Amino acid sequence: MTDTAFDTTPAIDPAALKVSDEVAIEISNMNKWYGSFHVLRDIDLTVHRGERIVIAGPSGSGKSTMIRCINRLEEHQSGKIIVDGTELTSDLKNIDKIRSEVGMCFQHFNLFPHLTILENCTLAPIWVRKTPKKEAVETAMHFLEKVKIPDQANKYPGQLSGGQQQRVAIARSLCMKPRIMLFDEPTSALDPEMIKEVLDTMIELAQEGMTMICVTHEMGFARQVANRVIFMDQGQIVEQNEPEEFFNNPRSERTKLFLSQILGH
Amino acid sequence: MTTLTDPPAESFKLSMLVYDTRYRSITFQILALVAVLLLFGWLTMNTAQNLNDLGKEPSFSFLGESAGYDINQRLIDYSSQSTHLRAAFVGLLNTLLVAAMGCATATVIGVIVGVLRLSGNWLVARLMTVYVEMFRNVPVLMWIVLCMAILIEAMPPPSAFRGDDPDATMKLFDSVAITNRGVYIPEPLFSRSLGDFHVGAAFDVSINLIAILIVLGASIFVARGIARRADAKQEATGLRPRTWHTRLAVIVLPTVVLLAILGFHLGYPELKGFNFAGGTYMRNSLIALWLALSLYTAAFIAEIVRAGILAISSGQTEAAAALGLRNNRIMSLVVLPQAMRVIIPPLISQYLNLTKNSSLAIAVGYMDITGTLMGITLNQTGRELETVLLGMLVYLAISLIISGVMNWYNNRVKLVER
Amino acid sequence: MADTHAETVLFVRDTMLPQQEPPLSTVGPVGWARTNLFSGWLNTIITIVALLFVINLIAHLLPWFISGTWNATSLNDCREMMAAVGNEQGGACWGVIRERWPQLMFGFYPAELYWRPVLVLVLLFVALAPILFADRTPTRMLGFTAVFPFLGAWLLWGGTIWNPITALLGFVVGYVVFSLVSKVVNAGVSLFVAVVASVIWWTTLAGYVVLGLSAIAPLAIASVQSREFGGFLLSITIGVTAIMFSLPIGILLALGRRSHLPLVKALCVGFIEFIRGVPLITLLFVASTLLNIFLPPGTNFDIILRVMIMTTLFASAYMAEVVRGGLAALGKGQYEGADSLGLDYWQAQRLIIMPQALKISIPGIVSTFIGVFKDTTLVSIISMFDPLGLANAIRADASWNGIYWELFIFIGAIFFIFCFSMSRYSMYLERKLQTGHR
């Protein structure tokens, strides 16, 4: 379902993709339950600044839940999450700080339909970052140009195609100047011909050195951009490795089964 | 699950009450509780102080005292020597009576109007729109007062029915007399009556009525059994036997036979002296209230029915037609079950509205629970607090029962949905 | 697969067919009547019956309507005039309207001061303009809208101008306190402190300030007592107040009902279900007989104010349910989108959730408004003189005893105009907002 979208994309300059030693996210011993259902089991994960991590796994394996824990859209019940040196506790100030540092893109975009594209992008800078409006608009236009839809700035989300909407959603997150970006299946709600435009935007972002964690089924993207692929099943991290190794030489049986199902047709 | 986040490393700070999500909700709830308790405490203190100043003490003992006023429209025995409690009960029954009559009529009119508004006939659809807009956009109280005024001012007095060449005549084969004092309709009588059944010393219930209800219930049960047999046969053989005539006979015949045994006949109102005697007498206030509430609520029900039918997309009808179902089967198997799910909840809340609006009876002097308990009883005993509180509780109970029914229905159709 | 077939029946069209007129029976007035009035025998019969009904109605009503007299001063007078011109069927006695319309409009408001309620009504429309036609009026007019309630109340009841000004100052006090306190603690707490400060201002300080200022500069207009209010003036005053306050209270109640805090939720559910479970008339009984018992001994505030409070509470509960419906229609994604950007609860509500939820609820909100306005007639039952109360009084008057159609047609028509235009406006708004965002 996946590699085809990538045939035409230019190769990435590996030199641009440096990973520093600085730790961006540190998750240790994290557990979460829905009622009595153990969704996330003993998650340990360290993400360095500049890393591009792709999380794969069958549906219901807890991938989305995990990245949603990172900006507290879901609450973890035990263990530690430290983002940019700030521990995610029940303290609202920490939550607010982390949320404004971490950008997130959703499967269904979650744009605000009653606001124009531009207003979508300037909303959070104005109200959360207290940026002057003029400056916020300039920033927003800059990022809209980057995702190649500056001419749609005064339209409403409902007037745009799915791919355009997802690119606006990316621009909206970027306007907060986040240091980390989370992507929750950004392409699964899109028509095939729109997937590429979104992935291109994400690749561009990676080239600029953004720390990214992506939950996605786009294995071509993983091969090309990721420096680490994580495979999750039944709420646990089953395997993580560099993409080449991961795809060519999977070690666990579950990974092999998953890869054969997703790539073998 | 008992696992929780690790105990907070830092010691407890006051600011955590506001900023820590664990304490925040408790803090705000305690604040809200304190505010509400303070408010209630303040109100109670004021009330106690005021009642004390007035020399009153909250007590419901007045309910046992003799009411001393008459109620002219009633379903159970009542005289001015009866207690206030019984007066309130007469009022409650009157509320329920007009509510039940109103709901039934409003549903019939509403469904007809709603369907006609969707009719392909332009003129009829327009007329129905005028009806709906006219009733929806004018206060119901005005309709009630207007109906009352028409009945009083425009209907003939009983004396007009007298003489060889009367100004007014009785309607419907001389069985119904509409006068400016009220409407007289035939009453059901039994020449071989089974008498009354005494429930304690409080109420008499006609055994005839109970017998008829039992027989009718049993016949309906049997008829449903026949329908189930037909279902079973259809499932087994694919052919459905025609049973509607047997079912109709099973429902109607036993009741008719029972009525004949009891010697059922109608007692017609007759002009005696200056007024009518015999028959059932419905006062103007009841008629006006009933008419106005029905017509007003019907306008809302019409909109609900219309919206319910429109909510079923034409795709459903087309899909059913493409499967080869005939029109009546499409209606009964595909459209109606879906439309009902949309229609019934707002319909029940209209019934609730009608019941609450029936409290406007006091404007035309119909003695419902508002007119008795919160009207005359209040004025005679001076117990504002107790009567109004009690009246509110009665309405609240009725509302809760009706919304209980609605929730039960909603849950049932939700289960069907899964 | 079509290839094989194409070879056996080769066909090439060389001249294009011109467009033809449809059959005459399906277009034009004839076609319209055919499809809409006379399609099939049943429809034809229905049309004829309906037509006869309409004609009959008009034949009876129109002469009565037109041949009526405007000059009579009593019902008997009117009947004599009818008889004099030989009008056998009788006509409408519009004299009652001509004689009593100022009363039906203003109640017992002093006639020389009629300009004040009229001015308030005009100002009401000016104040409404920036809300009703937000895209065509300058935003600065909202300032006037904010001042209007105080100005309007002052014009209606009269008295010293310092009353509305100090009342308005309460909000200024609240705002100043809020902006000072919010520098130290978060928005919720500072809002609470600000409200407390405003309440303290209104309940204790304001009285002295008014006394002081009136002594210095006695600027006042003739004051009018509440019992002199009546007619549509009363209905509109109560209705507009209840409408104005019920929306914000209703929004808060709806948010409370959806809150994750069990206690707050329980309180809101209890309040909403209680109010919705009892008829308005019982609440008005509370206003007329009980409210003074609940308040500190000696407080005896105005009956109109008491009725306004109860009507507002009543409307708020219904509004809360309407808004809750709108909130429920919004997906979880909108909340998550707002959260992920770091907006706090009140910012998310104000900027993201409410604008959408309220838009969805417009039809419900407006029909609640209409309901409230119609329900103001219930005050006639607790002996206030709204149009219906006055109609009863007029019908009890010896000279007009027995009249009803003319009065109720007049009152009904005015209610109809108000309510119908409100519902049409909501349709217009719905359509406008829909096209604006697609």
Write the layout of secondary structure elements.
The complex is a heterotrimer of chains A (265), B (418) and C (438).
Chain A: E1 23-34, E2 37-48, E3 52-56, H1 63-70, E4 78-83, E5 86-87, H2 92-101, E6 102-105, H3 117-127, H4 133-146, H5 162-174, E7 180-184, H6 192-207, E8 211-215, H7 219-225, E9 228-233, E10 236-241, H8 243-248, H9 253-263
Helix pairs in contact in A: 3-4, 3-5, 4-5, 5-6
Chain B: H1 16-19, H2 21-54, H3 84-117, H4 122-136, H5 140-154, H6 171-174, E1 177-179, E2 182-185, E3 187-190, E4 196-199, E5 203-206, H7 207-237, H8 244-262, E6 264-267, E7 270-272, E8 275-277, E9 280-283, H9 284-311, H10 314-322, H11 327-357, H12 369-381, H13 384-417
Antiparallel strand pairs in B: 1-2, 2-9, 3-6, 4-5, 7-8
Helix pairs in contact in B: 3-4, 3-9, 3-12, 4-9, 5-9, 7-8, 9-11, 10-11, 11-13, 12-13
Chain C: H1 2-8, H2 28-36, H3 41-66, H4 75-84, H5 95-106, H6 115-132, H7 141-157, E1 159-160, H8 162-181, H9 187-216, E2 220-221, H10 231-257, H11 262-277, H12 280-294, H13 303-328, H14 332-340, H15 345-375, H16 387-396, H17 405-437
Antiparallel strand pairs in C: 1-2
Helix pairs in contact in C: 5-10, 5-16, 6-7, 7-8, 8-9, 10-11, 10-13, 10-15, 10-16, 11-13, 12-13, 13-15, 14-15, 15-17
